[in-house]
Each structure stands twice: as C-alpha cells, then as structure tokens.
Specification:
Layout (H helix, E strand, L loop, with lengths): L7 H18 L6 H8 L6 H4 L3 H23 L6 H18 L7 H8 L4 H28 L8 H22 L3 H14 L3
C-alpha cells in the first residue's frame, strides 16, 4: 500500500510549530497532538511526515540550525566588519528574547539539557552547535586577519568560548528577565578579552 503524498508545506508548518513548542515547553512537554492541532492536521497524519517523534525532533533541530545560519548570513553583510557582524547577529537574538518575554532562550541549549538520553538527537544537537561555532569562527578568523581580534588563540576556540559564554548568559537572562547578562558577556569578550 502506497503512503499518501506528503506536502512539504504542511511538513514545514509542523516543524515550525514543533520548534515553537520545544522552545516553550521542551521536547517532552510538547505533545504531537498539540502540534498537529495547532497546524490543523489530523492526528493519524503525523506518520505521513515523520517516522517518529525522534525524527520530528531531528527536523526541528535542523530547522533551528538553518535559522541560525540565515541570521548569521544576514548579520555578516558585505558592508559590516566581522566584529560588527557578530554584534548584529547577537543583537537580533536579543531582540527575539525580548519579543518572547525572555521565555524562549536557545533551542539548542534547551534541548541539550533535556535530551541526554537520545543519542540520535544528541548528535543532531552537536552538529547544529558545530555549524553555529564554525560560522562564528569564520567571522573571528576574518577579524583576526584584519587585526581587530587577537590572533594568538585559534578562531574556533574563541568561537567556542563566545557561544558557551553566551549560552550561560542566556540562562541568567531567563532567570533575571533582563538582557544585562548578554550585554556583559559580549562586552567582556568582544570589547576586552578578544581584542589584540
């Protein structure tokens, strides 16, 4: 028996709704029925789009990673120097945090803390993190070549430090409901430690 034809648009809507649900309620707190109802898809149709909740989770993580990549590409426009691009990227994230009243945070970090038991999802999260880190490293390497970022530490190590510090600041932001920890993180690194 042939499977019903899949609709890429419906699949994308499910992924986007899943991302919103995972960000707000976590992986385990987001039910498939809740996502299907929000998109207006019948309950039995889920398996026309995904083999399991785990493959659905992979699709959501991949979608979030692509969003980060698009935001980075937009921030690192040709008119901006790399450090200004980094600032623009993180400023956009801060705007999104304010729009969600500090409840969202970072999907990769949120799921990373929740999904330690799923090797498949852990690998997807690790790949998403590496993609984000590699994009940051490209900008930092370019800034090193321009002499605006210290060159005695590998750009990938600086990117790891920046993202890991940022993620810690995001946790503090959510607790205190203020952008101040994020601003301090960027100031301490981009305006101090990363300078030549």
């Amino acid at each position: 028996m042939a499977r019903p034809r899949r609709s890429d648009d419906t699949r994308q809507l499910l992924v986007e709704e899943g991302a919103a649900g995972f960000l707000t309620n976590g992986y385990h707190g987001t039910g498939i029925k809740q996502v299907l109802d929000a998109v207006g898809v019948p309950k039995g149709s889920f398996y026309n789009y995904f083999d399991s909740k785990e493959t659905f989770g992979q699709a959501v993580i991949d979608y979030h990673s692509q969003c980060i990549q698009r935001n980075m590409a937009a921030a690192f426009g040709p008119a901006l120097d790399p450090v200004a691009g980094l600032r623009a990227f993180f400023a956009r994230q801060m705007d999104e945090f304010v729009e969600t009243d500090y409840t969202g945070g970072c999907l990769i970090a949120n799921l990373g803390a929740e999904l330690e038991g799923s090797e498949v999802l852990r690998e997807s999260l690790s790949a998403a993190f590496r993609t984000w880190r590699d994009g940051m490293a490209v900008a930092l390497r370019e800034a090193q070549e321009q002499g605006t970022i210290r060159a005695d530490i590998d750009a990938a190590e600086l990117a790891d430090l920046l993202i890991e510090s940022w993620e810690g600041a995001v946790i503090r932001m959510k607790i205190d409901r203020t952008l101040e920890p994020l601003r301090k993180c960027l100031a301490r690194l981009l305006d101090d430690y990363f300078r030549p």
